[in-house]
Amino acid sequence: MTWREETVTQWKDLKEILSKLYDYGHVGNWVFRGQEDYSWALSTSLERIHIDINRRVAEEYLLYEFKGAAHHYIDFSGIPQNTLEWLALMQHHGAPTRLLDFTKSPFVGCYFALEKYPRDKKPAALWAINTDWLDTQALHNIRPNIVGYDRLRDYQIEDPRWVASEFDSIFVNHSILLVLPVEPIRMNERLVVQQGIFLCPGAIEKTFEENLLHYGESTGDMSKYVLKIKLENSVREEALYELHAMNINRASLFRGIDGFAKSLEHKLEIEHDRRQMDRIMKELA
């Protein structure tokens, strides 16, 4: 069993699909990832680099190198306190890690899927994964495989901050096929603004999708809890216009002048401020 796939050609159809997702539970039970190319797999940046060495060795090496040089670039107050915080900081600045970026907001996910203009007209993708299902399946895999976790409770595994405190025990010291939501105990500004969260694979030697598909093999019901939505190019213009009206754009998601400057491209493309454009055209005429 694999995930379910849907195709949308209109913005209203996508909103209808999202509203149905929430019939299964609360909004917070789903996380989303936008990808500009529908053909792309769910893969971490560590997976996407071409190396001949074991990814666990690669992760340890990258952590060692980053920790040794980070003090040159960040002040003492920003020094991470644990492995997950180090990986989150590395991810933030573009280093390869096992973490995969998701967001709790379907509309932020849509923005990242659609923001870049697809010159070849290829469709984009919005992934939706139910975190309650991830937590439940992780319980079944962790209890028998990690000493001392045989009495692990569901309310513990459902708390990404608790998972963060146990990150080394679950992910670094063991190699178990699982995927769990994780959040650093100390969140950076970008994670807060983007309602960001990471999904983390347990067996780093395997791909992210191999870790995820293991749940489907054991339960047979993955199609209820993992959805891949194909966003045809016809969705893009109306979606960006409405997302901008929701204040979801580069300026709001990436604070600072760089994010604001990049947001102007979409304002021009979708003609969001048509009255001002008309005024300028009259002046130039």
Describe the protein:
The model has no long low-confidence stretch (mean pLDDT 87). The chain has 14 helices and seven strands. Helix 4 packs across helix 11. Helices cover 45% and strands 13% of the residues. The longest helix has 15 residues. The strands form two sheets. It has a four-stranded mixed β-sheet. Strands 3-6-5 form a three-stranded antiparallel β-sheet. The chain is α+β, with helices and mostly antiparallel strands. The chain folds into two domains: 230 residues, no CATH class; 37 residues, no CATH class.
Give a brief rundown of this model.
The protein has 285 residues and is α+β, with helices and mostly antiparallel strands. The chain is built from 14 helices and 7 strands. The protein is globular, with a radius of gyration of 20 Å.
| Side-by-side strand order of the widest sheet | 1-7-4-2
- The helix/strand class is alpha+beta
Q: Note the quaternary state here.
A: single chain
Number of discrete domains: 2
Percent of residues in β-strands: 5-15%
DSSP strand tally? 7
Radius of gyration: 20 Å
Overall mean pLDDT score?
87
Q: Share of helix among residues?
A: 40-55%
Q: Runs with pLDDT <50, length 5+?
A: none
**Overall spatial form:** globular
Q: How far from one another are the termini?
A: 62 Å
Largest sheet: 4 strands, mixed
Our count of helices gives 14
Series of secondary-structure elements, N-terminal to C-terminal: EHEHHEHEHHHHEHEHEHHHH
